[in-house]
């Protein structure tokens, strides 16, 4: 089958157009820019975010490692608006809203209980606004007033804090602020009656008092916590804060050293104290001579240096994290050394150990899990896996089309190419038939003309 010159040109242009369209559509479908967001959110908060985006049909993916989620750049604004609409980041803590509705039939006892719950909620709202505090729980022990009681029971408060890595570095200051805030907000509550614990059950008020009395121990703990927080915040976006273990130990020199040094100040010219000239008369054996004697005095310099306490003599840091493709071991060591200031000449030591995560085992419980617990477990499990799993949008047809869009495009373009070739083949065949018909008609006309000429003769 041969094409005419115009047919070949049109065929080439058609193929170029089809393949250009295929390349463009492939670029559009495959090259999507994603941004990692919500890396500092807890698993429970991420579960709420996932549920909101899932219901809104906003597509996103889970990162291969680390925390947060991946959202397309073109959908970031839509995702933020949707999360604000669903009030995902709003606190579930209830404060004085207890009294927003009229409760006429409620007794005085229930009014007192609701006021206590509302006061606890307002305190929790105030505490989570402190930088470094992730979550807070407040429990007030307010005894009931007794008419005939001589001894009055004291009001007590218990506060449980979940601190961020940055908050642990300022643990003492945060605890002191929390104690003052709670004691000031509750009438007749003294600071001595406020107990503060962390999420691990460690009493922070006792640690705070001990550190206040022992400045050296406080400074040592602050430095160690700061170093650990820096490393965790540096590696958390890549490995996840829960999978990274950091332990720092520092040897702090709390001795105050004073040095006194005395010497001559060579930067200034010496002063002449005494100058004498001795002249010896000439004799038969000796000639006349003159000798100049000078006495100089240099200014003395006294320097006193006093070194403050808290100098780091030595530091040891150990880091435990899962294996990943983000950095090599040498790059990790260099990164951490630069972040916390490891000085080998001072005797500092850095140990980085990478382990292989164990596969997650799924256990089935008899109790029926809630939707939120299922979503939370899903987020935690997918965060620890080294795969990127797209989230289902809730519509099977849309999911199938989005996952097979590239194959559909190539299939459609292939059909167009075959249709294009078939069209030109048909056109070429039609052209040959037309030429044959024209030739036949021409021959018939010539024969008719010859017959007419013979008749005329």
Brief sketch in words of this structure:
The chain has helices at residues 5-30, 43-56, 76-85, 108-128, 165-169, 171-185, 204-213, 215-239, 329-340, 371-384, 396-403, 405-456; strands spanning 34-37, 60-61, 69-72, 133-141, 156-163, 194-198, 245-253, 257-264, 271-280, 289-297, 300-307, 311-322, 349-355.
Which secondary structure elements does this structure contain, and how are they paired or packed?
Blueprint: H1 5-30, E1 34-37, H2 43-56, E2 60-61, E3 69-72, H3 76-85, H4 108-128, E4 133-141, E5 156-163, H5 165-169, H6 171-185, E6 194-198, H7 204-213, H8 215-239, E7 245-253, E8 257-264, E9 271-280, E10 289-297, E11 300-307, E12 311-322, H9 329-340, E13 349-355, H10 371-384, H11 396-403, H12 405-456
Parallel strand pairs: 5-6, 12-13
Antiparallel strand pairs: 1-3, 2-3, 4-5, 7-12, 8-11, 9-10
Helix pairs in contact: 1-12, 2-10, 6-7, 7-8
Q: Could you characterize the architecture of this molecule?
A:
InterPro entries: AMP-bd_C_sf (IPR045851), Flag_M-ring_C (IPR013556), FlgMring_FliF (IPR000067), FliF_N_dom (IPR006182), YscJ/FliF (IPR043427). Keywords: Bacterial flagellum, Cell membrane, Cell projection, Cilium, Flagellum, Membrane, Transmembrane, Transmembrane helix. The longest helix has about 50 residues, at about 405-455. The protein folds into 5 domains: about 5-85, 2-Layer Sandwich (Alpha-Beta Plaits), CATH 3.30.70.1530; about 95-205, GMP Synthetase, Chain A, domain 3, CATH 3.30.300; about 220-255 and about 310-355, GMP Synthetase, Chain A, domain 3 (2-Layer Sandwich), CATH 3.30.300.20; about 255-305, no CATH class; about 415-445. Residues about 360-400 have low confidence and may be disordered. Helix 1 (about 5-30) runs antiparallel to helix 12 (about 405-455), helix 2 (about 45-55) packs across helix 10 (about 370-385) and helix 6 (about 170-185) packs across helix 7 (about 205-215). About 45% of the residues lie in helices and about 20% in strands. It is flat, with a radius of gyration of 43 Å. The strands form 5 sheets. The protein has a 3-stranded antiparallel sheet, with no helix packed on it. The chain contains 12 helices and 13 strands. It starts with a helix and ends with a helix. It has about 450 residues and is an alpha+beta fold.
């Amino acid at each position: 089958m041969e094409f005419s010159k115009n047919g070949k040109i049109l065929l080439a242009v058609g193929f170029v157009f089809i393949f250009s369209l295929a390349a463009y559509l492939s670029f559009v479908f495959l090259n999507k820019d994603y941004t990692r967001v919500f890396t500092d959110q807890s698993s429970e908060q991420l579960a709420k975010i996932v549920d909101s985006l899932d219901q809104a049909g906003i597509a996103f993916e889970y990162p291969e490692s680390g925390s947060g989620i991946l959202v397309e750049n073109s959908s970031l604004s839509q995702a933020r608006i949707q999360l604000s609409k669903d009030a995902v980041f709003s606190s579930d803590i209830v404060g004085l809203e207890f009294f927003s509705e009229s409760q006429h039939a409620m007794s005085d006892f229930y009014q007192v209980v609701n006021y206590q719950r509302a006061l606890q909620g307002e305190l929790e709202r105030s505490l989570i606004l402190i930088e470094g505090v992730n979550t807070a729980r407040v429990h007030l022990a307010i005894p009931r007033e007794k008419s005939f009681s001589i001894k009055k029971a004291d009001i007590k408060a218990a506060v449980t804090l979940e601190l961020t890595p940055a908050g642990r570095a300022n643990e003492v200051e945060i605890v002191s602020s929390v104690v003052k805030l709670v004691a000031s907000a509750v009438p007749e509550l003294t600071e001595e009656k406020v107990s503060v614990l962390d999420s691990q059950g460690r009493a922070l008020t006792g640690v705070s008092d001990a550190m206040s009395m022992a400045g050296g121990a406080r400074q040592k703990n602050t430095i160690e916590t700061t170093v650990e927080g820096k490393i965790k915040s540096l590696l958390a976006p890549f490995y996840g804060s829960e999978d990274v273990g950091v332990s720092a130990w520092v040897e702090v020199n709390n001795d105050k050293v004073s040095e006194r040094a005395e010497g001559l100040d060579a930067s200034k010219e010496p002063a002449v104290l005494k100058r004498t000239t001795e002249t010896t008369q000439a004799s038969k054996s000796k000639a006349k001579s003159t000798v100049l004697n000078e006495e100089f005095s240099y200014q003395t310099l006294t320097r006193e240096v006093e070194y403050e306490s808290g100098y780091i003599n030595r530091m040891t840091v150990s880091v435990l994290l899962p294996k990943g493709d983000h950095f090599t071991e040498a790059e990790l060591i260099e990164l951490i050394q630069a972040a916390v200031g490891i000085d080998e000449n001072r005797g500092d030591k850095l140990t980085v150990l990478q382990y292989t995560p164990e596969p997650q085992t799924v256990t089935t419980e008899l109790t029926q899990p809630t939707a939120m617990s299922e979503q939370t477990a899903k987020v935690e499990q997918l965060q620890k896996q080294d795969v990127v799993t797209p989230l289902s949008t809730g519509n099977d047809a849309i999911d199938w089309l989005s996952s097979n869009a590239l194959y559909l495009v190539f299939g459609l373009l292939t059909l167009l190419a075959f249709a294009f070739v078939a069209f030109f083949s048909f056109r070429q065949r039609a052209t040959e038939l037309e030429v044959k018909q024209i030739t036949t008609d021409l021959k018939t006309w010539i024969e008719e003309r010859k017959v007419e000429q013979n008749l005329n003769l």
